[in-house]
Structure formats: C-alpha cells, structure tokens
Amino acid sequence: MYSIARSLLFSLSAEASHDLTLKVLKTANRFGLVELLFGEAPSVDPNDKHTVEVMGIQFPNRVGLAAGLDKNGDYILAMAKLGFGFIEIGTVTPLPQLGNPKPRLFRLPDAQAIINRMGFNNKGVEHLVEKVKQARATGYKGVIGINIGKNAATPVERAQEDYLICLKKTYEHASYITINISSPNTPGLRTLQYGDDLKALLLALKEEQSNLSESTGRYVPLAVKVAPDISTEEVQGIAQCLIETSIDALIATNTTLQKDKVAELPHGSEAGGLSGAPVRQQSTQIIAEFSKYLKGKVPIIGVGGILNAGDAQAKIVAGSSLVQLYSGLIYRGPGLVKECVKQLRS
Predict the structure, then answer these.
(1) Active site includes 291?
(2) Is pTM, for the whole model, over 0.70?
C-alpha cells in the first residue's frame, strides 16, 4: 500500500507530502483504519517477554521514532499505532518559531536520502505539553521522549536558559528528555557539544533534574543527542563528559554536513543536514567509537540511515541498546518498523 502511495507523495514537494502523510495517518487512526492501510503493527504490550530496560524505562521493543517527524506532539497516538516501542517528539523550543524559509526539505531518491534545514520550526513548548497531556488523557501509556532545543533568536551564550525553560515545562510529562545540541540548522548550536560549554550546560541541567526529581517524586532521564561530524578525540572528550555528569543516555547521531556522497545529485548541494542511507556508515562508526569509551556506563540510542532490518541490527552490534527511525520511513513506509522489530526480537 505504501509503495503505491509513495509515488503520489513524491509528486508533491517534500514538506507538503510530509504534512499530508501525517494528516492522513491521524485521520486513519481516528477511524480505526491504520491497520487496514498499513498492516498489523508489532506488539507494544509492556508485559511482552521482549521488553528491554534502558535508562530505567521498560521499552516494549527496541525501535523508536526519532525526533523531527512530529515536532509538536500533534500525532502521538497515530504514530503509536505503527508499533514503535517509543516515540520522541520535538525538537521544541521555549517560544514558537517559524524556522528557516521554504523550501527547506529536499528528497534525494537516488541516494535514499533527505537534506533538511528546517531550523526547529515548532509551535512552542506550551503547545507540545498540552498535546502530550491530551494523549495521556486518552489512556496512552507508551514511552514518550521530548527533544528540547533553543530558540534561534537566543544567543548561544544564553542557550542554557532556553534548555532549562524547556526542561522545567516538559519534565512532568516526558518519559525521558533529549538535549539537542547537534542540529546543524541553528547557528552556533553545535559548539555546545564540546569542552567547558558542554560540561557547564549538562551540569546545569542535571542540577535542575535533581531539583525536579525531588519536587515531583519522579526521576526523568536525560539523553544528549550528538552529531556524526566529530573526530575520535572529540568522541572521547564527549564520552568522558557524559560519564562525569551522569547523563542517562546518548543518542547518536543527528544529520551530517558531509555531502560528498550526494554532491552530484539533484539537491545534493543544498544547505542543511543530510540523513538517510549516506549517513548510515558514519553514524554506526560513531556509535562504535562511543561504545568503546563509554564502556556500558551510558546506554546508546542509535539513529542514522536505517533503511532495513540489517541496518538496525548493525546499530545494535555497534553498541546501541535502542534504535530510532526517520528518513527510512519516508522511503520504506511503516513496514520498516515491523521489519526492524522482528529482526531485533529474533
């Protein structure tokens, strides 16, 4: 069914087809048609024998939705019907923002890739929190990660303030919270991945996490999402910082700025982050390097270029405990979720 629909969707602009797909999925869910359209989804029974514990959370399976697809939490219940073991929404910022000018999302079908320069377009943290509350009010008990960032207008030297605002507002509503310091589409953001800037940010967030844990009686883990464009020396430094600050998980990786593999393709030279098949090997290598230095002290969630079950398995072999999908869904459709879950359960 999806292979037929994809031909229609690919005739539209990338962002228009993205929005249309989500609206169709939401409507299908409202009328109980998701299974009819996309097939039976993997079990997400929290009592299933295949559950896995990461960050102190029980995940019904190892396959999650990466941040970026549902930035505002508008489609939580619909996405859950596809069989994801967890759903990460965002990136969300304290204030609503439009993001970068359109066009800002480009498909590269010959490479099974996507380039985006969205720029954290979202409706703001208040809207996202309300959507999570609505999903929970229906009885949905699935794992929801919330990915937080800074507003584009906030100077990078004041980024900590934005992250703290988002942490405070989302804490009671998230299963875990991801600190996104690796998007290439917000100027200066990636500088927060290194050295004293990284340590200062993480210490401030961990202190607030401790305060919130005490006041709410609930511990919500913090994950950090990093870029693939880092050296072995930088991996080692980041890993050491994650251990020293007791961060609960690492998400590796975000999109890459290296476009040599797609430079000759239509849209291959567009500004923005590259995802999909071309980042697969780079992402898996970074995961393996982090695994070497983290030594099991910080679990890894692997993301980047998963287009089939073998790609998902490679991320696990490299050292990930969980994996996330995004670009692969655009090219393979919801069947990719089922395929990856089946492989990782076996």
Answers:
(1) no
(2) yes
